[in-house]
Design goal:
alpha/beta, 7-stranded parallel β-sheet, two-stranded parallel ribbon, globular, Nucleotide-diphosphate-sugar epimerase, NAD(P)-dependent_oxidoreduct, NAD(P)-bd_dom
């Protein structure tokens, strides 16, 4: 099995989980020692990296370059005998009008045309923690009262991906998110409580299609994960 983005937040866990389940795994990186080396944008090294591979978990992301990188990957997969392809997308990409999300929808279409599978996961706890650390640099923290989220533990997503490649789930497994639907206020308050910081939480209301979609729960997903935000904070901080 080959994992793209193997040095990233999700990729590291995917590699570890697959190895724990007895699979031979090759991690892909542009230059990191100990990994297969290839450039997804140019295609250089992909043929060698895919040699003998029957499954690819595509967890690499590089902003607005993702469509071009995935096109190169699929081109290489076609030449390598069409290994199974599983792509990691994001819950709500078809409902939240962001350019990055539109690219994800495009990639999902490319993966489907190839015959692969896309798993949409909600935002990771790691991203929420990064936002919390940034917000608490200010004396006030704004939160959108109608905006609920369902962040997910990266390890849970890695396990779900392993279940997909092992054939334990349907070809199109649906959305996957954390076990608790939480308001942004609750997330920030839990972080403040855990760190002992004191900040004033201020409700704000924001216009626009993006915030309407978030208000309508476009980024929450149905659940399925196990790890909670509070458990993540205990482990990380």
């Amino acid at each position: 099995m080959l994992v793209t983005g193997a040095t990233g937040t999700l990729g590291r866990d995917v590699v570890a989980v697959l190895k724990e389940r007895g699979h031979e795994v090759r991690g892909l990186s542009r230059s990191r020692p100990g990994y297969a080396h290839a450039d997804l944008l140019t295609g250089e090294g992909l043929a060698e990296a895919l040699d003998g591979i029957d499954v690819v978990v595509h967890a690499a992301t590089d902003g607005r370059k993702d469509v071009a990188a995935t096109a190169k990957l699929i081109e290489a997969l076609e030449a390598a005998g069409k290994p199974q392809l599983v792509f990691v997308s994001i819950v709500g990409v078809d409902r939240i009008p962001l350019g990055y999300y539109r690219d994800k929808v495009t990639i999902e279409g490319m993966v489907a045309a190839y015959g692969g599978t896309s798993l949409r996961a909600s935002q990771f706890h790691d991203l929420v923690l990064t936002l919390a650390k940034a917000l608490t640099k200010l004396p006030l923290i704004g939160f959108y009262p109608a905006f609920d989220v369902r962040p997910v533990e990266v390890h849970d997503v890695a396990v779900r991906l392993a279940e997909i490649v092992e054939g334990e789930l349907p070809a199109q497994p649906g959305d996957f998110s954390g076990p608790q639907r939480r308001s942004t206020r609750a997330l920030w308050q839990a972080y403040l409580t855990h760190t002992g910081k004191r900040r004033l939480l201020v409700p704000i209301r924001l216009p626009g299609r993006i915030f309407r979609a978030l208000r309508d729960g476009a980024g929450t997903g149905p659940g399925g994960g196990i790890g909670t935000w509070e458990e993540f904070l205990v482990r990380k901080l």
